[in-house]
Amino acid sequence: MTRFYSLMGILLLFCTFLFAQSKQITGRVTDQKDGSPLPGVTVKIKNGAVGTVTASDGTYKLDVPAKGTTLVFSFVGYDDKEVIVGSQQVINAELGTGNKELSEVVVVGYGTQTRRNLTGSISKVTAKEIANLPLPTFETALQGRAPGVFINSGSGRLGEALNIRIRGISSVTASNDPLIIIDGIPVVSQTASNLGAKDNPLASINPDDIASMEVLKDAAAAAIYGARASNGVILVTTKSGKAGRTKINASVFGGLSEPTRKGKWLNAQEYRELFNEAAKNSDIDLNDEMQYYPGGEFWKDNYDENWSDHAFQHGNVQQYSLSMSGGNERTTFYLNGSYNNQKGILIGNRLNRANGRLNIDHSINDKIKVGANISLSKTNNYRLPDDNAFSNPLQLVAIPPFQPKIDPLTGKLNTRTLYYNNLLNLENNSNTLNTLYRSISSIYGTIDILPYLNFRSEVGIDYVNSQDDQYLSKETQDGAPDGYGYNAQTTIVNYNTNNYFTFKKHMGEFHDLEAVAGMSYQSGKTNVTSVEGRGFPSNQFVKLTSSAKITSGATTVEDYTFLSYFLRANYRFKDKYLLGASIRYDGSSRFGSNTRYGAFPAVSAGWIISQEDFLHDSKAVSNLKLRASYGLTGNAEIGNYKSRTLYSGLPYGSISGIFPTQIGSSDLSWESTRQADIGLEFGFLKDRITGEVDYFSKNTRDLLLDFPLPGTNGFNVITKNLGALTNKGWEASITTQNLVGKFQWSTTFNISTYRNKVTNLNGATISGGSDEISRISEGRPFGYFYGKKYMGVDEANGDALYMTKDGKTTNDYGAAVDTVIGNPNPDFYGGFGNHFSYKGFDLDVQCQFVKGNDLYNMAGHFQSVNGDYFDNQTRDQLNRWQKPGDKTDVPQARLYAGNGTSKSSRWVQDGSYFRVKTVTLGYNIPKPAISRLKIDNARIYVSAVNLFTATKYKGYDPELNTASFSTISIGHDFYTPPQARTITIGINIGL
After folding, report:
1. Phi then psi for 761, rounded to 5 degrees?
2. Burial environment of residue 450 by CB neighbours within 10 A (0 to 12, 13 to 18, 19 or more)
3. Residue 541's closest CA among 435, 425, 428?
4. Is 500 within 8 Å of 38 (Cβ atoms)?
5. CA distance 609 to 606
6. Per residue in 765-798, pLDDT tens?
C-alpha cells in the first residue's frame, strides 16, 4: 500500500509539473479595418506544430508552453502577425491588409466556412446589397445577383408566389421550388390561402431582418440536406447584435408605383372601323347583330371608354422601421419592429405587414452559450382573383370601348356590358382578404466540450395561421343572386430540432480537420377548416353568421415527419489542398413502406493553386482555386399521402359510406438527382478582378410522376417513380474594382445557362390543357411549345396560313402539321451592376436580363384575332389584310369566321428582356453636420425598382407566368398583370 501511495504521489507531482509547463491562451481575432471577426485564422506556436483555428466568431483557445512562446496569426490575404505571450492569458489580435472576399464567412449546412475553404458552389447576397430597396419579398433580392438562380416574379399582384429555379428544372410533377431554411428551420413556402392566385407566405418576412442569404447550388453544398435538396437550398440568416453600446437605427421610406407597361387598345372609332369591316366581310348586318349582345344598345352612341385604364390605379408604398442592437461580452441582442403598407397597381389590391423580431445571444460562461430568435408578423393581403377569372381587373380590357363605364340610365356602374364589369366588386363592398399570422422562432444552446469539440442543440417552430375571408355582394357576378360568403382557416405547425457535434482541430503543422455529425427531426401538420354560405340581407352584413343558408363546410388535416442523420467532414492540408465529404440518411412518412429511407452522399475536392510556390509571390495572380464535386440529392415534395391508397366518406341520403379516391404504391420513393460540378475561382491584381466559372451536370432519375391511368378502372392517375431528365449548364461571375481612390467604382456581372432535356418518360407524352401549347416528351426540353406553326397571311385572299408536313403552307387548319413551335426555357440569363461612390454620395445600378425564351400570349385568342369576336382588340390588329397584295401577318377581319383564331405559334413571341431592376442614389450626411444632434449617421436616398425594360414582347410584361393553368405550362400569359415601377425616397438615421 505504501508503494501505491508513493507511486500516486509521483504521478501527481509529474502531472503538476506538466501543467506548470503550459497554460491556456484565449482571445479573438478581428479585421483591423472594421473590427469584424475573422474565422478560420490559423493560430500556432512559432516554429512549432501546436496550433488551432479561430471559430466563426473569431475566438480561439490554445494550450502553449509557459515560457518563451510567440504566437503567429496567419490568414490568407492578410499579413501575418506575431505576438509574444509572456505573462498574458488573453491575446486579441487584429490582422490588416487582405482580401475580404476570401475571408468572408459563408453559411453552410450546419455551420460556417470561409469562402477560401469552400469546395462547393455557393452564392451569397448580404444585407448591404439589398438595403434601401422596397422589396416585395426577400427572395426577389436574389434576382440578377446570384449566378444560377432564375427568378420569375409571376405577376404584378402583391404577395403573389414567385417562381424560383436553381440550375434548371429538376422535376415534372413534384415541386421545383428550393428548400428555404431560416436560422436553421426549414420553413413553409407553399401557398397557405385558398382564394385566388397562388400566394406567397414568405411575403410575411421582413427583408430588413436578413443579414445574408446563401444559395447552395451543387451537391457538395446541398447534399447534407438530402431528400429535399435537388432543387437547391437557400439559407437565410437573420441579424444579430454586437458587443458594444446600444445602437438605434430608424428608417422611413415612401414612394409611388405605376405599371411597367400598359397595353395599346382600339378606341371606339377604331373599333367600329374594324368590326364594321369584319361584319361586312362575313356578310353580317352588324346593327342587327348587336341587339343580341349585352350592351349592344350602345353601338350607335358616341361613348369612348378606355377600359384598360380602369384596371389600374396609382400605387404607393410606405415603410417605417426601428431597430436596436448592442450588448456586452456576454450578452448581445437585436430588436426590430417595422410596418409596411402597399397599395398595388391593380384596383383593389393592397397589402400591409407588421413585423417584430428579437434575436438574443448569451454566454453563460466560457463554455456554454444560449440564445433565441423570435419573430412575429401579421400580413393583410387584399387579394385579387386569378388570371382566368372574369373578375380579374385586367379582363376589363375585353369590354368594347363603345360601352360606357357609367350607365346613363342609372348613373351607376354599367351592368349592361359584353363581359362582366368587375368594377362592381369594389363598389359593392365585396372583398377578398387573407390575414396571415406567422412566427418563425427558435432557441439554441451550445457547449464547448473540448477546445476543438462543440455540441449544439436547437429547437424551432414555424407557425402559420392563414385566415381567408371573402364576401361577394349580390350585385357581383359571382355573388348573384343573393350574396356569397366564404371563410377558411389554415393552420400549419412545423416543428424542427437539430442536434449535432462540431469537431474543428489544427493537427501538426499542415493538417486541419472539421467535422459535423448529428441528427434532425421535423414534423409538420396542416389543418384546414372552411365554410361558405349564401343569402345576405344587405352589403352591411358581410359575415357568415348573417347568411340565410350555410351551403357547405369541410375540414381536412395532413401531417408528415422527417427523421435524418447527417455527417460532413472537411480536411485541409498545407492550406491549399481541400477535401470534403458529406452524407445524409433521410426517412420520410411521405414514401412507401418499402422505400421510406434513403442515403444522399457527396464528395468534393479543391486545390488553391495560388498557394503553390510557383504562384505564391505572384503580383498578377492573388487567388486561383480549382474545385470539383459529385453527389446525390433527392426531392420529396409531392404532398403527404401520394404513396397511400386513400378513401373518403360519401353520403347516400342519410347513410354514410366510403369509397376509394387514390391508388397507392408501397414502393414509391425519392426522386434522385446526381450532380457533378467543376469550378474555377480567380483573383487578379490584388483582387481588383475576382470571379468564378462553373460547369454543372444534373441527372434526375426515378421522377415522381403522376402517370395517367385508363378511366375504366375509376382512377385518373397514379404517382410512380418513372422517367428521367437532365440539366446542364455554365455559370460565370466577375467583380472588378475599377477605381479605388476617392472616387470608387466597382462592377459586377454574372451570366448563367442551362439546357434541360427529358430523357425518359417510358414513351409517354404529357400535354397541357386544351388552350395551352406546353408539352413534355422524351428528347425535348421541359414544357416546350407544340402545335400548329403559323405562316402568315395569303396575300391573294387574306387567309391565315399554317405549315404542312412537307414545309409548305395551307389555309386548312386541320391539314396543318403539329410541330415544335417554341421553347420557354431561356438560352441564358444574368445580372449586371455598377456601384459608384464619391465622398458622401453613392450610386448603385443593378440590371437583369433574360435571353432566348419564348412566351405564349394565350389572351391573343381573344384580343388579337382580327375582329373575330367582340372583345376589344390590340392596336396591331388594324394592320389587317384588306386587299390583294397586302403584306401583313394579320389575316383579313371576318366576324365569327375563325380566320387565324385557333391556337398556333401566332401568339408565340420572343420573351427576352433587359431590365434596369434597381437604381439607388444616396447621400451620407457628414458627421460634423449631425454630431451636435447626437446622431451617429444619417443617409437620404432615392430608389427606383423596375425603372426601365427593353423587350420585343408585346404583352404587358415579359417577366410573367400565369398560375391559372397546368404546372407544365411555363411561359404562358393570360391577362397576367405587369410588374410595378416604384420610385421611393427614404432616410436612415443611426443613434
Report:
1. -135, 20
2. exposed
3. 428
4. no
5. 9
6. 988 888 899 999 999 999 999 999 999 999 999 9
401: nearest Cα among 305, 298, 261, 283: 305
Bridge partners for 248 per DSSP? 324
Which residue type, as a one-letter code, is found at position 186? P
Grid coordinates given for 197:
392566385
Residues with Cβ within 8 Å of 324's Cβ and at least 6 positions away in sequence, in order, are 246, 247, 248, 249, 333, 334, 335, 336
Cβ proximity of 457 and 498 under 8 Å? yes
- Give the HSE-up count for residue 26: Cα atoms under 13 Å, Cβ half-sphere: 6
Put residue 763 in one of left, alpha, beta given phi > 0 → left and psi -120 to 50 → alpha.
left
Q: Is 11 exposed, middle or buried (0-12, 13-18, 19+ CB in 10 A)?
A: exposed
Looking at the DSSP bridge assignments, the partners of residue 441 are 461
- Cα–Cα separations (whole angstroms), residue 904 to 818, 875, 891: 9, 20, 14
Q: Could you give the CA distance from residue 727 to residue 348 in angstroms, rounded to a whole number?
A: 41
pLDDT in tens, 113-140: 888 899 999 999 888 888 777 777 788 8
Say how far residue 174 (Cα) sits from the centre of its chain: 17
Where does residue 18 rank: exposed (0-12), middle (13-18), buried (19+ CB within 10 A)? exposed
Let me know the angle formed at the C-alpha of 229 by 223 and 233, rounded to the nearest 5 degrees.
100
Question: What residues in the chain have per-residue pLDDT under 50?
Answer: 1-20
In angstroms, the CA 831 to CA 847 distance is: 5
Per the document, the length of the chain is: 991
For residue 302, count CB atoms less than 10 angstroms from its CB and return exposed for 0-12, middle for 13-18, buried for 19 or more.
exposed
Sign of CA dihedral 235, 236, 239, 240: negative
CA 643 to each of CA 319, 497, 764, 769, 885: distance values in angstroms, whole numbers, following the listed order: 46, 26, 21, 26, 62
Q: How far is CA 815 from CA 372, 798, 805, 831, 899, in A?
A: 68, 18, 9, 44, 15
Quote the cell numbers at residue 849: 436580363
**Cα–Cα distance between 504 and 452 in angstroms, integer?**
5
The confidence score (pLDDT) of residue 197 equals 67
CA distance 295 to 559: 52
Phi, psi of 35 (to 5 degrees): 75, 10
Whole-angstrom Cα distance, residue 842 to residue 658?
68
Annotate 89-123 with b (16+ C-beta within 10 A) or e (fewer).
Answer: eebebebeebbebbbbbbbbbbbbbbbbbbbbbbb
